[in-house]
């Protein structure tokens, strides 16, 4: 009894799977055999080509050439295929030869024997595959398999450039069929890596496609991979673009790889060139000439001129139409048939015309420009002409059309441009026929269309604001009755509700008999000027008020400061001390600061000496100075030492003022012991002059007042000797923008050592020769023990 197997039978599933596997293996084997056969055929083609070269060079038969090739290969230790590629390279001397030779020159000693011959073989096999390919699809597959896969590339696209600079996918390999369908056509103007190579006419390397932000085929498949796009063309004309993709970011490649890629692009150019493009069809040229002869503007048909190497060197003037007028005055016959740079050598100069023609010929991208400068030589004298230029490619030729801008056209264009910028509309009224002519700008000012009837000048009051009726009446009497030129300004009320401020000027025109024939004039929209003047007037008034308030505030600040610390003060003599002070306010009132000084005798018969500097300028600094100065006086009456006084003064600055910070030096002199006790809060230390030598007192710790709520200050003391002079000052005495503070302090010590007849002379000398440049307040106290 035979049992039927169900689909879920495990044995049946195993057998089915085995059959599928065998079928897949058979397909892979057959595909491999086809590829091997194709590779062998391409290899045999290279060997047969090398044998043909030997037949021609050695003047021998095919059999002898085959024997000679085998013998040479054995002697060189190479395969016949590798030797054949080498023979072809030496004979061809083309880009593929250069690429293989460059790789050989750049490779190391080990690579020369191994990799270099394989490079030559795979480049020549790729060439063979391209030349015998039936279409561009086979070209892309051959390039990827034989030449690009060894470089690590996984996909390639061959783009054909259209006459309008569009791109069509002619062949691809490594990309999916769905992706190829999505990218079968790229319209003109779409930015892609291939378009960059086309427009810039150079090879463009992209480290990573995603970093560039340019869309291209396979961007979802290979988002972070590298790309290179190479223009492929011949004779100066780009026929397409070769785009190669890598799966990983692309590092900078050596020069030999660059040459290989350029050589492969040249192979693609020969396959992209259609048979019809390889020759100039007589019918197409005849149609182009007929088109040019029908044009109303001067035009030239330019055909590319190539050298022996196929490189573009110039363009020949193939045809000129009947409208053609040579700028140098030469007849058409002397220009037609000549090379462009021979007829117009300055086309390669400042105008850049030759460069534009080359770009249009290479890319197919049309070029148009207005007011381009064309320069021709007439008996070696340059003649300049302004013209509107149009360049388009038709087949392999360039159509150059230009329209010369004569002086009348240029002046009319300039006038129209000036009227548009100045928002000026012109008019003319014929007083005999009543005909009124407006330009387009005047229609726009009135908010009308050219289909509307112009408004006569005598009806101007109907369109104006009622309050301007009197002004307009005087204007109309001046022009229409007294027949004199006139001008006025009024508010125009348009039909759309917009009100414009308009200035109108008009003058009568008389005929030969003295009769008024017409009125000509212009309207100008001065709305922006009007409102600008209104805004400026308001701003000017506001600035004047603000300036007045600032000046009054600065004056009050200066009066407050001078009331407390006058610029000059008589000397103080007490207990053998001679004390002199100097205060120099800022020259500019708005820079009035908060520097202060104070010297007075305490109830304990000690003498308080202090200087300080409030941060900032203006009324806040001045009032802060008053608070701290008076607070120090009151605190000093307690009999506390300098360090304790600064500790209390810091509390006052931090808690009892509005964010006031300051530096200060406080000293107490005891006449009985001649000892000066002193402390500092972020201030410059005093200077002691003893026996004509000036030194700074040691710097002791002490943070500026008001910076922190709690601060401790150190205290030092010095015993004065007879003849000693002590100086206490603020930084306005020495501060300079171009010197460090340390440098300025060193200069101050040298100036302080200058001999002086008395203390007052010494202080005056310091104020004169300390060249500070910050225009800050300056306080200076001098104490001399007699």
TrEMBL record:
<dbReference type="InterPro" id="IPR035965">
    <property type="entry name" value="PAS-like_dom_sf"/>
</dbReference>
<dbReference type="Pfam" id="PF03861">
    <property type="entry name" value="ANTAR"/>
</dbReference>
<feature type="domain" description="PAC">
    <location>
        <begin position="486"/>
        <end position="538"/>
    </location>
</feature>
<dbReference type="InterPro" id="IPR001932">
    <property type="entry name" value="PPM-type_phosphatase-like_dom"/>
</dbReference>
<dbReference type="InterPro" id="IPR052016">
    <property type="entry name" value="Bact_Sigma-Reg"/>
</dbReference>
<dbReference type="GO" id="GO:0003723">
    <property type="term" value="F:RNA binding"/>
</dbReference>
<dbReference type="InterPro" id="IPR000700">
    <property type="entry name" value="PAS-assoc_C"/>
</dbReference>
<dbReference type="InterPro" id="IPR036457">
    <property type="entry name" value="PPM-type-like_dom_sf"/>
</dbReference>
<dbReference type="GO" id="GO:0016791">
    <property type="term" value="F:phosphatase activity"/>
</dbReference>
<keyword id="KW-0378">Hydrolase</keyword>
<dbReference type="InterPro" id="IPR013655">
    <property type="entry name" value="PAS_fold_3"/>
</dbReference>
<dbReference type="InterPro" id="IPR005561">
    <property type="entry name" value="ANTAR"/>
</dbReference>
<dbReference type="Pfam" id="PF07228">
    <property type="entry name" value="SpoIIE"/>
</dbReference>
<dbReference type="InterPro" id="IPR001610">
    <property type="entry name" value="PAC"/>
</dbReference>
<dbReference type="Pfam" id="PF08447">
    <property type="entry name" value="PAS_3"/>
</dbReference>
<dbReference type="InterPro" id="IPR036388">
    <property type="entry name" value="WH-like_DNA-bd_sf"/>
</dbReference>
<protein>
    <submittedName>
        <fullName>Serine phosphatase RsbU, regulator of sigma subunit</fullName>
    </submittedName>
</protein>
<feature type="domain" description="ANTAR">
    <location>
        <begin position="27"/>
        <end position="88"/>
    </location>
</feature>
């Amino acid at each position: 009894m035979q049992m039927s197997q169900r689909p879920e039978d495990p044995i049946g599933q195993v057998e089915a799977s085995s059959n599928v596997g065998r079928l897949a293996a058979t397909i892979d084997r057959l595909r491999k055999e086809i590829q091997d056969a194709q590779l062998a055929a391409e290899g045999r083609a290279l060997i047969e080509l090398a044998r043909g070269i030997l037949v021609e060079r050695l003047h021998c038969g095919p059999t002898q050439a085959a024997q000679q090739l085998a013998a040479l290969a054995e002697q060189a230790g190479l395969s016949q295929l590798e030797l054949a590629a080498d023979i072809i390279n030496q004979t061809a001397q083309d880009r593929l030869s250069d690429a293989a030779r460059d790789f050989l020159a750049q490779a190391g000693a080990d690579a020369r024997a191994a990799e270099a011959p394989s490079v030559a073989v795979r480049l020549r096999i790729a060439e063979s595959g391209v030349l015998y390919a039936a279409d561009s699809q086979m070209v892309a597959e051959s390039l990827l398999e034989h030449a690009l896969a060894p470089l690590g590339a996984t996909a390639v696209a061959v783009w054909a450039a259209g006459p309008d600079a569009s791109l069509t996918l002619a062949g691809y390999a490594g990309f999916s069929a769905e992706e190829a369908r999505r990218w079968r056509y790229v319209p003109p103007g779409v930015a892609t890596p291939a378009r960059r190579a086309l427009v810039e006419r150079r090879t463009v390397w992209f480290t990573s496609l995603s970093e560039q932000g340019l869309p291209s085929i396979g961007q979802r498949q290979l988002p972070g991979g590298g790309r290179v796009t190479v223009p492929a063309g011949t004779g100066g004309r780009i026929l397409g673009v070769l785009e190669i993709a890598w799966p990983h970011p692309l590092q900078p490649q050596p020069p030999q790889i660059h040459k290989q890629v350029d050589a492969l692009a040249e192979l693609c150019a020969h396959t992209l060139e259609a048979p019809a493009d390889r020759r100039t069809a007589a019918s197409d040229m005849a149609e182009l000439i007929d088109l040019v002869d029908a044009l109303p503007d001067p035009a030239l048909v330019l055909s590319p001129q190539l050298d022996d190497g196929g490189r573009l060197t110039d363009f020949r003037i193939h045809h000129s139409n009947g409208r053609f007028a040579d700028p140098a005055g030469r007849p058409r016959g002397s220009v037609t048939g000549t090379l462009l740079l021979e007829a117009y050598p300055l086309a390669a100069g400042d105008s850049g015309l030759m460069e534009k023609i080359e770009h249009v010929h290479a890319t197919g991208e049309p070029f148009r420009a207005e007011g381009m400068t064309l320069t021709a030589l007439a008996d070696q004298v340059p003649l300049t002409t302004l013209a509107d230029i149009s360049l388009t490619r038709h087949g392999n030729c360039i159509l150059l059309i230009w329209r010369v801008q004569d002086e009348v056209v240029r002046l009319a264009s300039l006038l129209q441009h000036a009227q548009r910028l100045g928002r000026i509309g012109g008019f003319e009224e014929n007083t005999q026929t009543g005909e009124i002519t407006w330009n387009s700008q005047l229609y726009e000012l009135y908010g009308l269309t050219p289909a509307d009837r112009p408004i006569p000048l005598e009806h101007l009051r109907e369109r104006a604001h009622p309050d301007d009726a009197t002004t307009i009446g005087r204007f109309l009497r001046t022009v229409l009755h007294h027949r004199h030129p006139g001008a006025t300004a009024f508010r125009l009320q348009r039909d759309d509700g917009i009100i414009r401020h308009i200035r109108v000027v008009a003058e009568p025109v008389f005929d030969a008999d003295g009769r008024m024939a017409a009125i000509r004039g212009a309207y100008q929209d001065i709305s922006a000027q009007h409102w600008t003047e209104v805004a400026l007037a308001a701003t000017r008034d506001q600035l004047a008020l603000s300036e007045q308030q600032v000046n009054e505030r600065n004056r009050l600040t200066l009066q407050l400061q001078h009331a407390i610390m006058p610029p000059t003060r008589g000397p103080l003599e007490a207990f053998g001390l001679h004390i002199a002070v100097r205060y120099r306010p800022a020259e500019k009132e708005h820079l009035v600061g908060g520097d202060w000084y104070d010297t007075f005798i305490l109830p304990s018969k000690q003498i308080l000496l202090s200087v300080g500097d409030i941060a900032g300028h203006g009324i806040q600094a001045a009032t802060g100075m008053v608070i701290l100065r008076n607070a120090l006086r009151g605190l000093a009456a307690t009999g506390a030492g300098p360090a304790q006084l600064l500790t209390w003064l810091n509390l006052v600055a931090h808690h009892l003022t509005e964010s006031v910070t300051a530096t200060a030096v406080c000293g107490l002199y005891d006449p009985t012991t001649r000892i000066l006790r002193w402390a500092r809060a972020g201030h410059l230390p005093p200077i002691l002059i003893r026996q004509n030598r000036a030194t700074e007192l040691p710097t002791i710790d002490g943070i500026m007042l008001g910076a922190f709520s709690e601060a401790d200050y150190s205290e030092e003391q010095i015993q004065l000797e007879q003849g000693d002079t002590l100086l206490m000052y603020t930084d306005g005495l020495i501060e300079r923008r171009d010197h460090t503070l340390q440098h300025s302090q060193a200069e101050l010590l040298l100036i302080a050592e200058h001999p002086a007849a008395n203390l007052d002379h010494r202080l005056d000398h310091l104020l004169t020769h300390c060249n500070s440049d910050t225009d800050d307040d300056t306080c200076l106290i001098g104490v001399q023990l007699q």
